[in-house]
Amino acid sequence: MDILKKRLAELIIQKAFRYNKKPVFKLASGRMSQYYFNCKPVTMSPEGMYLIGELFLKRLLSLKPDAVGGLTLGADPISHAICLTSYLKGYPIKAFTIRKEPKGHGTNQWIEGDIRSGERVVIVEDVVTSGGSAIKAIQRAREGGLNVLKVIALIDREEGGKENILKYADFEGLFTRTELMQLRNI
Q1: What's the rounded mean pLDDT across residues 62-89?
Q2: Residue 50: is its pLDDT beyond 90?
Q3: What is the torsion angle, in degrees rounded to the nearest 10, for the CA atoms of residue 95, residue 98, residue 99 and residue 103?
Q4: Are 54 and 91 in contact (CB under 8 A)?
Q5: What is the distance between the alpha carbons of residues 131 and 78, in angstroms, rounded to a whole number?
Q6: DSSP-derived 3-state class of residue 16
C-alpha cells in the first residue's frame, strides 16, 4: 500500500470507524450493523482532504473528466478536495453538487456548480453500502445531460452496493470494509 493510502487508512480507522460486537449502529437503510463509517471527520479535515485529493486524482486522470461530484453531503468534501488538487497539479477538474431535492426557489435546480450538459463526469461517494445514493446521483446527473464515466467511493462496505452500481456505471472503491477491518485487526 502506498504511503498516502496507508496514512488515509490510518485516519479512517482513527476518526471514522466504529465497531461493536452487537449491531448497535443504524444505517441509512434502517438496517442495524456492527460497524459504522462516519467519514466526515476525515473528509473535512485538512490532512484528509489533501490525501483524498491526491489519491482520487490519480484514479481520475486517465478518464479525463470535466467534473466530479455527487449527492450532497457525503460527496461534497471529496469533490472539493479533488477540484482544488487538480487545479494545483495543472489538470483542473470542476466540482458539482447534486441536491437531495430540487432548489425550492429560483431555477429549481438539482445540480449546482459550473457544469454543462454533455460534460464528462465522475460521481464520488464517501461510503457505499447499497449504492442507493450513488445510483440516485448517476440518474440525476444523466437527467441533467451529463456523461457519467464512473463512480469512485472512499469506502465500499461490500454489502451489494458495488454490484448495484455496476448496473449503471463502472465502480471503484478506494478501500473495502474487509481491508480496513484487517488493518484494525477485527
Answers
A1: 97
A2: yes
A3: 80
A4: no
A5: 17
A6: helix
Q: Which domains does the chain have, with CATH numbers?
A: 38-176 (3.40.50.2020)
In the numeric block, which cell numbers belong to residue 63?
478518464
Which range has the worst mean pLDDT, 15-24, 72-81, 102-111, 167-176?
102-111
**CA nearest neighbour of 98 among 137, 127, 151:** 137
Residue 69, all three cell numbers: 461530484
Distance CA 80, CA 53 (A): 8
Cβ atoms of residues 154 and 174 within 8 Å: yes
DSSP string over 64-89:
--SEEEEETTTSHHHHHHHHHHHHHT
- In the predicted model, is pLDDT for residue 127 greater than 80? yes
